[in-house]
Structures are given as structure tokens and as C-alpha cells.
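Posting here for the record, re: fe (ii) ion.
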Amino acid sequence: MAERPEALQDFLASLRSEIGQRQWGAAAGRCLWRVFDALDRARPVAAKTPARLPACAYLGDALTTARAAGPSLAKIADAFAALEPHLTWTRRASADQTASANFTDGHANAMIVGPNGYEPRDDVWVGVSLLAPDVRYPDHHHAPEEVYLVLSKGRFRQGEDDWFEPSIGGSFYNTPHIKHAMASGSTPLFAVWCLAPAT
Ligand SMILES: [Fe+2]
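Prediction output follows.
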């Protein structure tokens, strides 16, 4: 089994520790169990060129917010800051009319573990999304079920339900294929997502 670089190992450990402290509903708990079970089997990291995008200018603000929310989120924020120089930030490949007009330069995603990620693999995905202020991410959906850990303020939507605000440190679970979206207010949105391997 591959040995993970320290920064990646520390980030995944900080995430696991935070997630392990929480009470989860049955479906989210099963999803997260599959995520971390798969992550127990490390794969080699990719020799990719790190890259940033314009929206990354808001990362410092987002991490400051997360650090101020308590020691456990601060640990995740610090671990992410150490890992980030290795990551390749990318734009979403497509956006429809549900995205705000400032979406293209107003967002950045980084796949940490998962397809084309720092630790490339197809089973389990762990990544982050960063939105500049006042950006609406387009509606999207995917087959894997997913848990979001939200490290900033921000609004989220599932299906046609009303938008909700998990608050800093909040989390929620997306069932397979559910349509979902997120939007920032006057401050950046920063969230970690974990997608489980197919059963
Ligand atoms: Fe998603």
C-alpha cells in the first residue's frame, strides 16, 4: 500500500477526527463509513503541477473564518493550508443558467482524493469548493452519495427545497443523484465534500 505524504495524511486525519465526533443519521453515517474504509487503502499521489485560480484569492479569508470557529475546524483549516500548495484548483467543466454571471472566475474546486486528484482514484472522492462572495454555483447532481462539511457561511439547496444555511461547521448529506447547489453571501463559501464508493 502506498504511503501518503504527511500533508495529505494530516488533512484526512483532521477530517476523520471531526467527522468521528459527530452524530450522523443512518444514511450519512453509512456513507462516511464507506468513505473512510476506502481511504484506509492509500494510493500513490500524482505528479501534477499545482495550480491556483482567481477565486483562490479568497482562501485566506475562508481559512481565517474556519480557524475562528473552534479547535477542531482550526485543525482542518491548518491541515488544508499545508496541503493546498500541492493541489490543482480547477473550474467546473460546465455551468448552465442556474449559475450566477460571475461564476467562472468566482469559484474554484480542488480534488484531493478522487478522479484527477492529488491522490487519483475512482472509488472515493474528497475535495473542496471555494466560492468568492455573491456567487451561485449551478445546479448539479452525481451518482455517488455525498456528505458536505461546511467551513464557512453559505447557503445550500437540495432538489426543489428551500435554501438552508448549515452555518460554520455544519454538515449535510446528499442522496444519490439528488440535484443540489450552493451560494455564497457577502463572505466566501468554503466546503469539503466526501463522496462514497458505489456499493
Ligand atoms: Fe456534489
